[in-house]
Each structure stands twice: as C-alpha cells, then as structure tokens.
Specification:
The protein is an alpha/beta fold. Helix content is about 30%, strand content about 20%. It binds flavin-adenine dinucleotide.
C-alpha cells in the first residue's frame, strides 16, 4: 500500500519549514491549519486598510533561513541548537574544553540580572540588556545569564523583511506549494489517532479523517499534554514548566508626534523589578509596563510626512488567558499606563478606536490553544531549562514535534530550526535522507536597523 504521507498540523514557522523540507525530499505532505492563513504568530492585521505586522518584528539569525532556502537537504550536526536530542552530557562533549571555558565565563548558573550587575554599574544599562530575557518570554531575574548571547545575535544583524514579517511566511508557503504541499486552511485538527501504539491518522473538526503514518505537530506541546488533541497523544509531551510571557498588543495606523522614532523603540520605567513581580509573581498585568513600539514605516518615507503610520505597541503580560482573570477594566488601565508612558517620553499617538486593534492574553490563548496566551512555550527559567524542552521525535511512534515550545526554543529563527529538526527526524524514521531537491526563491530581506531606548 502507498505511504499516505505526512500530515503537518499548523502552518506556523516550524510547520512551514517542516512541510517544505519533507516535500522537497519527495514525501506527500498535507498541512492542516486552523486559521485562514499561514504564519501562526507571524500575524498581519488590517487596521484602517493598512497591513500591520502584529507578531514578531525583530528578525535575527538570517543564516538559518539562508540555509533553509539554499539547501533543503543540509546535514544537521554541530552546535547545541542543531542537536536533535539535547542533553547536558552531549553538549559538554560537543563544546570541548575550549567551548566549556567560554561557557563558564558566561556564568550559566547565575541569573541574567545578577550577571549583568557584574558588567554594568549604570542601572539603566543593566535594565536595557536585561530585556533580552523577554525575547524568550522570561524574567531577567530567573533567566540564565547565557541569554546575554542574544546581544551578540543582534550585533550580527537585525533584519527587516520587505513586505513585513508576514511575507516570510507567505514566501515559505509558496515554496512549499511549488514542492507539492497541499494546504488546508480553516481545518482545525481535533484528534491525533493511534492504532497499535503508533500514529495512524488525524481527525479534523469538520468530521473528516486523514490517513497518516507520520504527523508533525506545530501547535504548543501544552495542548498535547492537556489532551486537546485526544487522550492517546497526551504522552507525546511531558508536563511543561512555568509558562512564558504573554502580551497585550496594539496594532495601530495613526499619527505619531513629538518624538523621532526608530524602527525599534523601547520605553522603560524606573521600576523594572515590579513588572516581573506583577507578571510572574502575582499573575496580573504590570502596573508599570515597559513598552516596545515598532514603527513599521521607518525608512519608507511615510513616517516623515506626518501621515498616519503603521505601529505595533507591545507590553508584557501574564499567560493567564482563558481563565477570566483579566477584566476589561484591568486591560483599560494597562492601556492607560502604556500610552501615558509614551506621552511622558514625549510621544503622542492618536489611536482612535477604529485605528487600533488590541490583542490580549485571552485572544492569544484562543489563537494558540493550551497556552494561556504564552507566546514562547515554557519560560526559560533556571540554568537547565534549555534541556527541559521536548526533542523533535516524541515518545509516540510517528508523532513529531516542531515549534517554539520545543527544542531549540522560541523566536522565528529557532522555530524554523525546529522545523528542520522535525523534518530530519521524520526522514530518519523512514531510514532515508535521499531525494533532496534544491529550491530557489527571490530575496526579500534587507536593511539593518537599530533599537533605541527611552525611559521616564
Ligand atoms: C506579539 C509577538 C511578538 C513576537 N516578537 C518576536 C520577535 O520580535 N522576534 C522573534 O524572533 N520572535 C518573536 N515572537 C515569537 C515568534 O513569533 C514565535 O516564536 C514563532 O513564530 C513561533 O512559531 P511556531 O512554529 O511555534 O508556530 P506558531 O506561530 O505558534 O503557529 C502554530 C500554528 O499551529 C496552528 N495550530 C495549533 N493547533 C492546531 C490544531 N489543533 N489544528 C490546526 N492548526 C493548529 C495555529 O493556528 C498556528 O497557526 C513574537 C510572538 C508574538 C506573538
């Protein structure tokens, strides 16, 4: 009987990369996606007729995409993030003595916040670099000092994608279609079916059943563990640790006056610690939030004309979505604090109701089931948290995991890497790595851009 092929559940970054690479190796691939478009968290919202990137905006580690696009049949070996099944012992072996000495200088057992205190006497610099913990949804007080490496990653280049980040997802979808991948949108998967202890198919919300001996799951592994994909698939993922950050975002098309914005802007308050105590300690919205503002028309000329421009504002929030814990009064107060801080820093925005769309942890929870709105899987808290993420090959035969909630972790490039790892694991399960076909695409990434910080 012919192999029914692979079903990929979810067209987020990792799902797209997996689908592309598996199809390029000659496997029949069907992607089932609950939403009506690819990208997952790489969302674009239309506000007042303008497309606003409303998910990731900081794009780094471009080489991962160069690799995906240039060579679908690349061998996966080398650094920790490329390891299919990371363990402490294997990492120590890979690093060797020289690598271990560099790692020990980073102080992996210390928190990021403590370590920054050894390097910076100015508390504002400590605050600025502490923010890197939030890139994987964590608190600077609990994240390991190794996250300082993100500063190095940014120094290697922060890229802007022509057409916005969403264009990256669309481009991968186009390439995957060209390789023969079938995309089914508005097709939520309700159950992963097992027969004789291994995957045999998937059941969609519309009652349809698809045959599959191999399934790549690109949703959050918390959904598997909670039984949202059926009882049989629960054991594919262990119970996950504390949830990472969620967010409240405002996608806006509005005038911005009083302050010259860069593309990436961060507005700090004087009391950084309270933000993380509120979120991780008390599970409530921060009373004094740090505000990230992405001015998406910087560099296009629009921003200088005084015309309405495309903006995304984001503040960190607890992942308590779906529990009825965030009242509209609390969200309005958070909004008030957010825009007051911008005003105190000299920036006036005029987000009329029709020019602004607010997304809350409840919304993120609805979009990404099982998460409570957490955007980065489990929090990266503690020196060994990197080893707690599930590898691509789950304990359930035929079920593979890909996305920001599994190894090597969250963020667009890491999720893409995870998609590669899942595709490699599927191929390994077939006992073959042959039939790699090259892919070609037009470029689209350009413009290094800088981040500015302000505080009040
Ligand atoms: C507001 C925001 C800002 C961010 N900022 C940055 C940034 O600046 N830089 C950066 O690198 N990263 C950033 N991130 C994180 C980054 O976007 C994610 O880590 C990455 O995109 C996750 O990709 P993924 O492969 O895990 O898939 P996801 O984006 O999580 O997509 C999973 C997909 O699976 C689908 N799905 C789930 N369950 C089912 C089911 N049962 N049936 C069918 N479909 C299903 C979902 O609908 C979704 O489309 C940000 C995220 C957000 C939300």
């Amino acid at each position: 009987m012919a192999d029914p092929g692979v079903v990929v559940i979810g067209a987020g970054m990792a799902g797209l990369v997996s689908a592309l690479q598996l199809a390029a190796r000659g496997l029949p691939v069907t992607v089932v996606e609950a939403a009506q478009a690819p990208g997952g968290k790489i969302r674009q919202l239309q506000v007042n007729g303008a497309p606003i990137d409303s998910g990731p905006t900081v794009f780094t580690l471009r080489w991962i995409f160069d690799e995906v696009l240039a060579s679908v049949g690349t061998r996966l070996e080398g650094p920790f993030i490329r390891s299919t099944s990371p363990t402490m012992g294997r990492m120590v072996g890979d690093l060797g003595l020289r690598g271990l000495s560099v790692l020990s200088r980073l102080g992996p057992m210390r928190s990021l916040w403590d370590s920054l205190g050894r390097h910076f006497t100015d508390p504002r610099l400590r605050q600025l670099f502490g923010r890197y913990a939030t890139y994987c949804g964590s608190s600077p007080w609990e994240a390991p000092a190794t996250l300082m490496l993100i500063a190095q990653v940014e120094m290697d280049g922060v890229w802007a994608v022509e057409g916005g980040m969403h264009a990256l997802a669309r481009m991968l979808e186009r390439l995957a279609r060209a390789q023969g991948v079938t995309f089914r949108y508005g097709a939520a998967c309700e159950r992963i079916e097992l027969q004789g202890g291994r995957v045999s198919g998937v059941h969609l919300a519309n009652g349809e059943r698809l045959d599959a001996q191999r399934v790549v799951f690109n949703g959050d592994v918390a959904a598997l563990h909670q039984g949202l994909l059926g009882d049989a698939a629960r054991t594919a993922a262990p119970r996950v640790g504390p949830r990472s950050l969620s967010a409240v975002t405002w996608s806006m098309h509005t005038r911005a006056e009083g302050l010259a914005l860069d593309r990436h802007n961060v507005f700090f308050t004087g009391d950084y610690r309270s933000e993380f105590a509120d979120i991780f300690g008390l599970g409530r919205l921060p009373r004094r939030p740090t505000v990230y503002l992405c001015a998406q028309d910087r560099g296009t000329g629009v921003a200088d004309t005084g015309a309405p421009q495309r903006l995304l504002a984001l503040v960190n929030a607890p992942a308590v979505g779906g529990q009825g814990r965030l009242s509209s009064e609390a969200l309005d107060e958070c909004e008030h604090q957010t825009f007051s801080l911008l005003r105190r820093c000299g920036l006036t925005l005029q987000p009329q109701a029709r020019e602004s769309v607010r997304t809350t942890p409840d919304d993120f929870h609805r979009l990404f089931p099982g998460t409570g709105g957490a955007l980065y899987g489990q929090a990266t808290h503690g020196w060994n948290s990197a080893f707690a993420r599930s590898p691509a090959a789950s304990p359930v035969p035929g079920l593979f995991l890909a996305g920001g909630s599994v190894h090597p972790g969250p963020g667009v490039p890491m999720a893409a890497m995870s998609g590669q790892l899942a595709a490699a694991a599927v191929m390994a399960s077939l006992g073959s790595t042959s039939r790699s076909r090259p892919v070609a695409t037009s470029g689209g990434m350009s413009t290094r851009s800088a981040t500015t910080g302000s505080s009040a």
